Amino acid sequence: MIAEIPARAAVVLLAAGESRRFGTDKRLHRLQGTPMVLRTVELYAETFSKLFVIVKEDDEAIARLVEPLDPTIVIAHDAAQGMGRSLAAGIAAAAGHPFVFIALADMPFAQAATLRELLELAAPGCIVRPLYKGTPGHPVGFADEYFDALKQLAGDQGAREVIRRHSQSLVQLWTDDAGVVRDVDRPTWATRPSALIT
């Protein structure tokens, strides 16, 4: 059973943000010709067999863009209330999986090899997180016993508090892959630790 967990792990990709700092819809910002959200979905689809993309009610264009990669599109009806509600919607949709990784649509730079390493660490009772030079990154994975707590998140509350309360279960992958902490915050591709857990 334990050996099956990596094969059955899913990804919840949060793509319902408002892009307020960016100035335009950064999900559609082109990176080497490819819209950012599509590039991120392609990255995760390469490693994970099941992907849930969380969008807002008016995000038909985003849904159509990623549709060829066959993710499950989840509409977070209360996404305007903050990231916590989008995350909760994603966890609820992925509840049939024993392990779920939370990823961000504006972080398309992680290496596929790093994702495979994280996936291999997925195990019952664990929370899995990458570290780059001591900085926590993404994606962050949670065993199903933490799903109830994640589904209670609200506002801009991310998973940080869930991780803090269960720090004894945290398994960290030290990596030299800067992509686990690099996000697209502004058109200049600003790099900073992401907001979900820091």
Beta-strand share of residues: 15-25%
Q: Poorly predicted ranges (pLDDT <50, ≥5 residues)? A: 189-198
Measure the end-to-end span.
33 Å
Task: Please provide the count of β strands.
Answer: 10
How many strands, what sense, and barrel or not for the largest sheet?
A: 8 strands, mixed
Helicity, as a percent range: 25-40%
Principal-axis shape:
globular
Quaternary state of the chains: single chain
Q: How much is the radius of gyration in Å?
A: 15 Å
Enumerate how many helices there are, as a single number: 7
Query: Could you give the order of the helices and strands?
Result: HEEEHEHEHEHEEEHHE
Secondary structure category: alpha/beta
Q: What is the average per-residue confidence, as pLDDT, rounded to a whole number?
A: 87
